[in-house]
Every structure is written in C-alpha cells, then in structure tokens.
Design goal:
about 20% strand; about 350 residues; 12 strands; four-stranded antiparallel sheet; alpha/beta
Length: about 350
C-alpha cells in the first residue's frame, strides 16, 4: 500500500446558530493514499463540501467549528494547526478546486496576476520566472494561446476555460493532495470529459492524491479508485468504485445506483429515493436514512448503527449487516467503463 497522505479520524464539524448546534459533519473517517483518487458522493446536504472545507481550515468561524476529531496530513494533525501554518500548506502542499470558478477568481485581476501570485507566494521565483511558469501551467491544462490568455480577465473566458485556470492554479506548486469540489458542475459534457481527462493525467504524471467531491456517479466511474458514500453528515458506505457501483451494500447506495438512467432500458419514469435528506441535529436517535429506507425495521429507529466491516476492507452503516439481521439484498447494478 502506498503512503497515507490524508486521514480523517472521527471528524466532527458543527455550526452554532440561533436555532441551535448543527452537526454538519458527524464522525467522518476517510483515508487517501499517495496517487489515489477517492470520490466522496451523496446528495446535496450530506456534508461533502463541509468535509473538504474542514480539511483546508476554511470553515467560517463563527459560526462553524471543528469540535472533535483529527485531520492528519502526512502525520500532522491540521485540526490543531495555526493559521500561519495553514497558509504555508494551502496552495502549496494541499490545493483545492472550488465549485464555481467565476466566484473563485478575482474579476479585478488578470489570469496571469492571480497565477503569478499563487506561484510566488510558495516558491522563490522572480516575477519573470513565475510568469513563465504560469504560461507553462496554462499550456499543461490545454488552454490555447496561453501567452495571450495570461493577460486576460476571468470574464473574458468561458466556464470551461476558467475551470482549467483553477486547475492550473491548484497544480502550480505541485501539491501532494488536490481537493476538487464538484469540478465539473455547470459545464457541458464535452468540457466535463476534458476536465476529467486533465485531472487523470495530472494524477498519473505527478502521482497526486485527489479527494473528489461530487454527486455525479458517472464522474466517479470515470476517475475514482475508491468511493465514500455520505448521507446526513456521516459515511454510510466505503469500498472500491467497482464494488460500490456493481454491488452496493447500503440501502442508500442502492438507491443512488438505482436512480441512474440505464442505456439499454426505456423507462417511463426514472427511480428516485422517496423523501429528502434530513436536517442535521444534535442527539438524533436511530439511522439517519431509516425514514426513507424500504428495509427499515424497529431497531433502525431506536439505535444508531455503526460502520460494519465487510469483505476486502469495505464498510457499511446498516443493521442488515449484523449477523442476526441477515444481508442486504442487491437491487441495483451499474455499467462501469473499463
């Protein structure tokens, strides 16, 4: 097994509001190894983005706060790191691609100015050397006319081009960990494919570990080695991409796979999981997914399930994996691109 780059241990991130304490991330544990692409999937409100922002220590304080757990980056617990230390790590050893490139790039500065600032902040380079590297990075991510684009403003570029700039900025200091939060959202399918190809190339050439936050299972099938399924702030299943997409063990994962349109079948109506993700709250008793689960029984509403270890290092947070309860029936399969 390659070196462990990131390990979240029982991470709890809460928001303190006028309505009370909200556990947005409720005991999440995730591992990412060197050169590995780990996908974190789930519906909106499942805690994916808050988990990624917690790693970068970008949760707004107040109202947010990491109240418990560890964020170990190469053995260093970032949950206790100072802001000075995090500034050295962000953009240098850990980089992040945010959801919306138009709001992430400063509209008042050229693409080149922003790339050069990121490069010079972490590397000892002259402005001329940094500009040359900025142009090289734009070329690397497939942006044409890089020498001209470097002097243009964000509003002059398309959504796909801006996203490429964000990737170039994130990769400019050769980070060991790249966190990508919905990097293909709002892009058309051809640009999505190009962005995924680019991330895969960077992962293979630089051996960069990637934590990919997404709700798109097609993206997961395309690029991820392992998948972590989140629901209501908790990890409900973990396994390899092939295992999760072919044989989901948790009822929620089964519902996600079942809701995918199938190429060879013509359905009048696509399947959807009934109900909505519950609002997180302190002291919740019972399985978070129980009100929406077709397999739920009395125990599901009265006890909180732990993650049950399965074969080959898989895990699933469901009482149906208790030997006394039997196993979950498989209801869903998905084609995986080989």
């Amino acid at each position: 097994m390659s070196e462990l780059v990131l390990e979240l241990k029982d991470l709890h991130t809460h928001f303190f509001t006028d309505s009370g304490e909200i556990p947005a991330v409720d005991g999440v544990s995730i591992k990412v190894h060197e050169g590995e692409v780990v996908g974190v999937v789930g519906e909106s409100g499942s805690g994916k983005s808050v988990t990624s922002l917690s790693v970068m220590q970008l949760i707004p304080k107040p109202p947010g706060e990491i109240v418990n757990g560890e964020i170990n980056f190469k053995g260093e617990n970032l949950a206790k790191a100072s802001e000075k230390r995090m500034k050295k790590l962000r953009g240098n050893e850990i980089s992040m691609i945010f959801q919306e490139p138009m709001t992430s790039l400063n509209p008042l500065f050229t693409i080149g100015n922003q790339l050069i600032e990121a490069i010079r902040l972490h590397q000892k380079m002259t402005k001329k050397e940094a500009r040359k590297k900025a142009v090289n990075m734009l070329n690397l991510v497939g942006i044409p006319r890089a020498e001209e684009i470097v002097d243009e403003y964000p509003h002059q570029l398309s959504g796909g081009m801006r996203q490429r700039v964000m990737i170039a900025m994130a990769m400019s200091c050769d980070p060991e960990l790249l966190i990508a939060d919905e990097p293909t959202t709002a892009l058309d399918v051809t640009i999505q494919a190009q962005i995924l190809d680019l991330m895969r190339d960077l992962n293979e050439k630089e051996n960069t570990a990637i934590l990919l936050i997404t709700h798109d299972l097609g993206v997961v099938a395309e690029i991820c080695d392992r998948v972590v399924v989140m629901y209501a702030g908790q990890v409900v299943e973990e396994g390899t991409t092939r295992e999760i997409l072919k044989e989901p063990q948790h009822p929620y994962s089964q519902g996600l796979i079942k809701s995918l349109p199938k190429i060879h079948e013509r359905e009048q109506k696509l399947y959807s999981i009934p109900g909505v993700v519950p609002k997180p709250k302190m002291g919740r008793v019972g399985c978070n997914f129980a009100p929406r689960c077709e397999f739920a029984f009395d125990r599901c509403f009265n006890e909180n399930p732990a993650l049950y270890p399965l074969e080959n290092g898989r895990q699933s947070r469901c009482f149906l994996h208790d030997d006394k309860e039997g196993k979950v029936e498989m209801h869903a399969e998905a084609d995986i691109r080989s």
